[in-house]
Amino acid sequence: MKDKKPSSKYSSSTSPCSHLRDAYNNCFNRWYSEKFMKGHWDKQDCVDEWQKYRACLSQHLDDKHLARFLEAEQIDQTHLTTSSKKEAYPCDSQS
Amino acid sequence: MVTGYKQEYVYKHPWERVTSASWRKFADDENKRILSHILEVDMLNHNLDPSNGILRTTRAITVHCPGPWFVRKIVGQDMCQCVESTLVDAQNRSMQLISRNISLQKFIEVQEMTRYDPHPDNPAGWTLCRQETSIRIKPFSALASMAEKVEKRCAERFLQNSGKSKEVMERICKYLEAEATGLSL
């Protein structure tokens, strides 16, 4: 059965925020690998890129949509907890 | 009813590289071609706690999820909005993600939990990925009478996509490894 890609309201190449998104993502990925993963977690970079990208999103994602996403986030983040104890690894010879 | 399954996969790469790869999955054109079911990914929120190195983010993901014609007729659309919430604990080297749909909720509830931790047999060099997925057709929805069939088809589709995701991850890990090796020469 062939899947036809629908014409999305924002297709990746024509999304109004895609250039700002790419700029932010590139910056984030560099910060993550080169700083955060190397123990520099004192601050996040990419503030300027983030502000521009986020402002664009607020403008183009309608309010109802955005509110729904953020509401879902509130719930899910409470399920993500940190623990210094790792879960016990089931003993098998998979690897 | 609920259909659920668990998967485990070992990446023979260090945790830092694997989690970096996870963030880059939807980036370049080749990856986008492979993961063609992912239409849009947007970061909505992020928060870094500098006291403990905990990064929390939320992303909005639009997925193309066509079903068979009889499902499309009932549901009326083949795009689904999802939310992905992530926690990265840099200090303890653990990453957790929860993804779930927030549209089509009157028909279906899908939730996927993913964890990346250093592999206990080789914590410095390997990463263990554990994933749990649950799919539930809402009992009183218009799809309820074919719940088992639809859930099974969804599970098959997700497993297929999961395979593509691993392919992309391995590709990115190899690229990052080459980059790191090149730099150290």
TrEMBL record, chain A:
| Keywords, ordered alphabetically | Disulfide bond
Keyword Transmembrane helix tagged: no
> One of this protein's Pfam families, by short name?
UPF0203
Q: Which InterPro entries match?
A: MDM35_apoptosis, Ubol_cytC_Rdtase_hinge_dom_sf
The ranges of region (Disordered) come to 1-20
Ranges of Low complexity compositional bias? 8-18
State the family it belongs to. Answer: Belongs to the TRIAP1/MDM35 family.
Q: Which PANTHER family match?
A: TP53-REGULATED INHIBITOR OF APOPTOSIS 1 (PTHR46403)
Task: Specify the protein name.
Answer: Mitochondrial distribution/morphology family 35/apoptosis
From TrEMBL, chain B:
The residue range of the signal peptide is none
- Give the PROSITE patterns listed for this entry: PRELI_MSF1
Q: Where in the numbering of this chain does the PRELI/MSF1 domain appear?
A: 2-181
- Put simply, this protein is called PRELI/MSF1 domain-containing protein
The species this protein belongs to is: Stylosanthes scabra
